[in-house]
């Protein structure tokens, strides 16, 4: 596969994932119109997602540590594990939101403002980071080191922010879950 085909695939996957998430967030589609039919394991997914995000945060920090030590092999392995976990997160996130379960933040005052600031920046940057991470992976796996470094200057801090704020959003909204 040439670079042009890979770029098209990355953009196609990124647009598809973004469209799926937008459709699920709009609640125009859910696989369980009857909420009593939702399997009990689905209600564990938000906590699982927070655990995955937290793990990804730690792995990203370790990845940075090892690349600074010039240990490319460990850096690569950590990033592949992080990518796999992030992919599992995405599948879990889509499954949970496909159920149509409504989650509403119940905090008030300044904490509410902080929550929505974190949530909005998390959502916007999560949409932006997928193609950046995919392109970073492409360049890294092809050992196009300079291109990889240029991309990672953007993708790494955004990916780290998204994983950390994913945990924070969960911790802030979890007390208001009604399930």
UniProtKB/TrEMBL annotation:
UniProt keyword terms in alphabetical order: Membrane, Transmembrane, Transmembrane helix
High-level lineage: Bacteria, Pseudomonadati, Bacteroidota, Sphingobacteriia, Sphingobacteriales
Positions of transmembrane segments: 9-28, 48-66, 78-96, 116-137, 158-177
Signal peptide: none
Protein name: Putative membrane protein
């Amino acid at each position: 596969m040439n670079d042009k085909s890979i770029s098209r695939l990355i953009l196609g996957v990124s647009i598809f994932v973004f469209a799926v998430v937008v459709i699920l967030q709009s609640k125009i589609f859910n696989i369980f119109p009857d909420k009593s039919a939702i399997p009990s394991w689905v209600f564990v997914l938000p906590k699982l997602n927070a655990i995955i995000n937290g793990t990804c945060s730690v792995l990203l920090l370790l990845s940075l540590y090892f690349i600074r030590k010039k240990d490319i092999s460990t850096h690569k392995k950590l990033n592949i594990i992080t990518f796999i976990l992030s992919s599992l997160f995405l599948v879990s996130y889509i499954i949970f939101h496909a159920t149509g379960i409504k989650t509403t933040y119940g905090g008030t005052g300044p904490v509410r403002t902080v929550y929505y600031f974190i949530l909005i920046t998390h959502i916007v940057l999560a949409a932006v980071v997928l193609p950046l991470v995919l392109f970073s992976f492409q360049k890294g796996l092809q050992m196009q080191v300079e291109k990889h470094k240029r991309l990672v200057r953007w993708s790494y801090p955004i990916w780290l922010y998204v994983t950390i704020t994913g945990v924070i959003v969960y911790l802030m909204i979890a007390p208001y879950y009604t399930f």
